[in-house]
Amino acid sequence: MRFGINTFLFASPFTQRSTRLFPRFHRWGFESVEIAIETLDQFDPAYVRARLEQHGLVCGSVTPCLGPDKDLRGTPRQQREGVRFMKKVIDLMGVLDCPTLVGVVYSTVGRADAVPARESRQQWKTVVKNLQEVCRYATEKGRVLALEPINRFETDFINTCDQGLAMIQDVGSSALKLHLDTFHMNIEEKDPAMSIRKAGAHLGHFHACGCDRGTPGSDHIDWNSIGAALKAIGYEGDVVIESFTPNVTVIARAASIWRQIEPTNEEIAAKGVKFLKKTLSSF
């Protein structure tokens, strides 16, 4: 496994200036960086890749920020913008030498509505169609998508491992994997470790977050069972710490981040990666 950090903890939007974080990331013990991409014109991917290499890091994953204007189950225009945006992100991934596009690749975070069953089924079919198009493009470019179920307060669409696997089956592309996150699983799964085992070879990305979005290891999550499950399925991908600050307004409202989770963001990153390396690498 390789241990990474999501840039949302320290920067929004991620820009050329954000590369100043890389020496700290390396010093704390991270090996990869997950870049949150809000717009397509904030940085030169070739420059970012060079800075990563300079500090012994790689871009292990990127996460596209699908705002209300980019929603794969929204209006026809929102769908087109969402598909176009993710294709452009995939193009950036080639320059960054990044293998995996991760996260909520199907809808806007924070969209949680009670809709009639018929409408829900239609939204599902719409997302399947749009993801098939994005996956075809990813396959052409040699990239992979990893779809993330998130909790019921952030979406009404895909909350569980089972729902994520169902979407993967319906899309029917080898370019689509599953992305699990301990924070969301702590809310939605009866047994997070069992969900990891159920995902098996479909698991393409993993977020290791405290139960309150704080420092992994300072919470009530059974990390030993998580580590054993990852080992049991032979997971060799990235394990990424993802958290947010109230100052990152683009995601704070959607993710209901109303307070500083830990005394400092550095504590989440530095203490978190030290704990994860010690705990998950012991299995």
Write the layout of secondary structure elements.
Elements: E1 2-6, H1 22-28, E2 32-37, H2 45-54, E3 58-64, H3 76-96, E4 100-103, H4 117-141, E5 144-147, H5 161-171, E6 176-181, H6 182-188, H7 192-199, E7 203-207, H8 223-232, E8 238-241, H9 249-252, H10 265-280
Parallel strand pairs: 1-2, 1-8, 2-3, 3-4, 4-5, 5-6, 6-7, 7-8
Helix pairs in contact: 2-3, 3-4, 7-8
What's the multimeric state? single chain
Average pLDDT, all residues: 95
Uncertain stretches: none
Write out the strand line-up for the largest beta sheet, numbering strands in chain order.
1-2-3-4-5-6-7-8
C-alpha end-to-end distance: 11 Å
> What's the story with the biggest beta sheet?
8 strands, parallel, barrel
What is the top-level CATH class?
Alpha Beta
Proportion of strand residues: 5-15%
Number of domains: 1
Give the C-alpha Rg: 17 Å
Order of helices and strands: EHEHEHEHEHEHHEHEHH
CATH superfamily: Divalent-metal-dependent TIM barrel enzymes
Structure description:
There is one protein chain. The longest helix has 25 residues. The chain has a single domain, classed as Divalent-metal-dependent TIM barrel enzymes (TIM Barrel, Alpha-Beta Barrel). The protein is built from 10 helices and 8 strands. The termini are close together. By secondary structure, it is α/β, with parallel strands linked by helices. 42% of the residues lie in helices and 14% in strands. It has an 8-stranded parallel beta barrel with strand order 1-2-3-4-5-6-7-8, surrounded by 6 helices.
